[in-house]
Design a protein that fits this description.
- The chain is built from 24 helices and 30 strands.
- With 765 residues, it is of the alpha/beta class.
- It folds into four domains: 3-89, Alpha-Beta Plaits, CATH 3.30.70.100; 188-362, DHBP synthase, CATH 3.90.870; 395-502 and 744-764, Nucleotidyltransferase, domain 5; 514-736, ATPase, nucleotide binding domain (Nucleotidyltransferase, domain 5, 2-Layer Sandwich).
- The strands form five sheets. An eleven-stranded mixed β-sheet has the order 7-6-14-8-9-13-10-12-11-15-16, with helices on both faces. Strands 26-27-23-22-21-28-29 form a seven-stranded mixed β-sheet, with helices on both faces. A five-stranded mixed β-sheet has the order 4-1-3-2-5.
- Helix 16 crosses helix 19 (610-620).
- The longest helix has 27 residues, at 677-703.
- The radius of gyration is 27 Å and the shape is globular.
């Protein structure tokens, strides 16, 4: 059989994951010659050899690529015959117009973990051990192709031993760009009171000792700094809350291993896989009976704990279960409330000086700050709450081919989205755009993504809300660059994002259950309890929660007691009923102000927000009158729900209105009858579910539409999500929900992009 040549191009997550050495080994195993190289549009391969051997190579590479790779496109074409003397790995080439995805940062792999604690290994207890299967990627890359000179490791020259590994195609550190060792790589030190106190292993041990003394440690990790303390030390945790200005919001926790987590939380097999996978996120786990005391200290009012296991060698060394060291650490983002996470050494020393007692630092620069991801479970599948480290910047595959586009995202839980060809690069979690620091971080990230993925937007999309900073940014940029700007309604974007994630490529519409706290409506009011008939191009607002006044605007969001009083007035109930918690909580002066605002309509915009109905019920049930973090009322209300209660409060539908007044009256009656908060909460949740199901059935009866998409921050509520999905399936609906992005506003930028593309910006379907 004569020899032939073929060219192969592979696109996707194919750089920084050991792709070229895998190709090298497979080529040798199948007696092929030729070459492989990275380019700015993926991995290019040319093979010369027997046709059967080439096919065997292709079959093996398709079925067994590197485990951290993600192949999106595998193209094989015939090439002119040319005989190569051997198989080689060529230097990368770059075409300024090409682009490719970049791997997220990956948790330490089992091989590196074993070497870290092996006394015979030259990297024994080295805090920056990594290989092609693990370690920093996105947080250190500055440009593509992904080679060492394009990362923050470029100033660390390889020693002979590391260089030998780096250039050996059969070594798992072949072209592992962050590769280093104690001889040639970064190092750690501990600093306190402006002085360097220790370096290397001594610094790590001193940091552990300080934690056990009740101190708060600023620890530089993979994508930024953490603040760490002993999770069992009530005084240390309380001091951290005081310094961070975070009085009630739960703290993330880190334990050395799964065995420790099982003492405090319920850990399923799916949860174990989530925690130990390459993403290694914070997993939200139900509190186990033995974990109630820990939850009381670190997650007050919660039924879940947010646990992660060490995902870097430095975290492994800090949490090592040796001596009398604590088994659980608080490991929270190092920032003041609502500010971006600190990630540069000099910046951290200034910004965190009043938060931390000491700093465990290193000199491997972080190019792009990235928070920890947060994940819960729905239908035994990962369900993102915050998408960042480990997931971003993995692209979402689009059901259309896109012209270059930037979607600016929204105000809370901001992400932005850059679309090009068949990819949507949804950014890592940026945060709430409420201050200059976060806006600066947002602009820096946009610029970095545009450079990294070679996307020069030809249009911009944004939210309709006129006051959002992301909208201002998009508007100003569109004007400056002469680009078209598409403004997208918030809840339409939610449903479009859910459809895109589920690869919906039809022009047909679906039923959209868009439930959240705030979204600017087309009528200028605040929406949030919306049942839409929606496609990518447009939508119809078929049902919505009856609007009520939001007395004081944002003040009513911060004080659920105000929202409760607004609902009491709307229901014609006694606003001075002293048996009700919000009435007792509000001073007469504030209560009178609320009544006047509701009656006069002054600073009391109308809202159909389901999030605000949650707040009102949480207040009436006596749970939360003033929040200390976003959605506290809804979160505490969910935590109280009795899973065995099957009753529900009425939410009747008439015309296009879902009427909450009978529900409010039923809640007040149960409060008067001293029904438990667990039962009240469950009846409230069940009432929402039944109303959503009834609305979906009615639309199907009217239109024949059989697909339902769930999106919006309310669907972070696992009580709702884990009931609604099977209920809809039992009624033979096809159900779409989020798998790659959070249901909260972190998905909105993708939806904005899809709506804009559907309105004439897609290159072709």
């Amino acid at each position: 059989m004569p020899a032939i040549n073929v060219s192969i191009n592979i696109q996707g997550i194919v750089q920084g994951v050991g792709f070229r050495p895998t190709v090298f080994i497979y080529a040798h195993n199948h007696h092929l010659t030729g070459w492989v190289m990275n380019s700015a549009h993926g991995v290019d391969i040319e093979l010369h050899g027997n046709e059967a051997d080439i096919q065997a190579f292709i079959d093996e590479l398709r079925s067994a690529p590197p485990k951290q790779a993600k192949i999106d496109l595998f193209t094989v074409t015939k090439a002119p015959t040319f005989i190569y003397p051997d198989f080689s790995i060529r230097d990368s080439v770059d075409n300024p117009e090409d682009f490719l995805p970049v791997s997220p940062d990956l948790a330490i792999c089992p091989d590196c973990r074993a070497e870290l604690f092996s006394t015979s290994d030259r990297r024994f207890r080295y805090p920056f051990i990594n290989c092609t299967n693990c370690g920093p990627r996105f947080s250190i890359v500055q440009a593509v192709p992904y080679d060492r000179p394009s990362t923050t490791m470029k100033d660390f020259n390889l020693c002979p031993d590391c260089a030998a590994e780096y250039h050996d195609p059969r070594d798992r550190r072949f072209h592992a760009q962050p590769v280093a060792c104690p001889v040639c790589g970064p190092g750690v030190w501990l600093q306190a009171d402006g002085e360097k106190r220790a370096e290397g292993e001594e610094a790590i041990q001193l940091a552990r000792a300080l934690i056990m003394q009740g101190k708060i440690l600023a620890l530089k990790g993979l994508g930024g700094f953490h603040l760490a303390c002993d999770a069992h030390n009530e005084q240390a945790v309380a001091l951290l809350r005081q310094r961070k200005q975070r009085s009630g919001k739960p703290f993330a926790l880190m334990a050395a291993n799964l065995e420790t987590i099982r003492r405090y939380a319920v850990l399923s097999h799916a949860g174990e896989e989530l925690l130990t996978g390459p993403q290694a996120p914070i997993a939200l786990l139900d509190v186990a009976p033995g974990g109630k005391e820990l939850a009381k200290i670190t997650a007050p009012g919660q039924k879940r704990l947010g646990f992660m296991i060490p995902y870097t060698p430095l975290h492994l060394l800090i949490t090592e279960p040796a001596g009398n060291f604590t088994d659980v650490l608080v490991m929270t983002s190092a920032n003041l409330s609502e500010e971006p996470i600190a990630y540069r050494n000099e910046q951290a020393l200034i910004n965190l000086k009043d938060l931390a007692d000491a700093f465990l630092m290193h000199n491997r620069p972080i190019n792009m700050r990235v928070d920890d991801s947060v994940v819960s479970m729905v239908q035994d599948e990962p369900y993102l709450v915050r998408r960042a480290r480990g997931y971003a910047p993995m692209p979402v595959s689009l059901p259309v081919t896109a012209e270059p586009l930037l979607a600016a995202g929204t105000h809370l839980k901001n992400t932005f989205c850059l679309a090009r060809d068949r990819y949507a690069f949804v950014s890592h979690y940026i945060g709430d755009l409420e201050n200059q620091e976060t806006l600066t971080s947002y602009k820096e990230a946009v610029a970095h993504y545009e450079k990294l993925f070679r996307i020069h937007p030809r249009a911009l999309a944004c939210d309709m809300h006129p006051d959002y900073l992301a909208t201002h940014y998009a508007s100003q940029r569109a004007e400056q660059e002469g680009l078209p700007l598409i403004k997208v309604q918030h809840h339409h974007a939610h449903i479009a994002a859910c459809l895109a994630e589920n690869q919906w490529n039809s022009k047909e519409k679906v039923i959209g259950l868009a439930f959240d706290g705030t979204g600017y409506g087309t009528d200028g009011t605040i929406w949030g309890g919306e049942v839409l008939i929606a496609g990518y191009a447009d939508f119809e607002r078929r049902f919505h929660l009856a609007p009520v006044p939001l007395p004081g605007g944002d003040l009513a969001v911060r004080k659920p007691a105000r929202m409760a009083l607004s609902y009491l007035l709307a229901a014609g109930l006694d606003p001075e009923d002293q048996a009700l918690a919000p009435v007792k909580y509000l001073s007469k002066l504030e209560a009178d102000a609320v009544k006047n605002q509701v009656q006069m309509g002054f600073n009391a915009p109308k809202t159909s927000s389901l999030g605000r109905l949650f707040d009102a019920v949480a207040s009436l049930a006596g749970l939360v009158q003033e929040i200390t973090y976003e959605a506290e009322g809804a979160i505490v209300l969910e935590a109280m729900a009795d899973p065995d209660e099957t009753g529900d409060y009425p939410l009747p539908i008439a015309g296009n209105i879902v009427n909450p007044i009978p529900l409010i009256k039923a809640v007040v009656q149960d409060v008067h009858n001293q029904v438990s908060t667990g039962v009240i909460s469950a009846r409230f949740h069940n009432g929402i579910l039944r109303a959503a199901l009834e609305a979906s059935l009615q639309i199907r009866s009217e239109t024949g539409i059989n697909q339902v998409a769930l999106s919006g921050g309310v669907w972070q509520n696992l009580f709702l999500a884990n009931k609604m999905i099977p209920w809809l399936r039992q009624k033979r609906f096809m159900v779409f929900y989020h798998h790659q992005l959070p249901p909260n506003d972190g998905c909105v930028s993708l939806g904005q992009a899809m709506v804009a593309l559907s309105q004439g910006l897609s290159a072709k379907e």
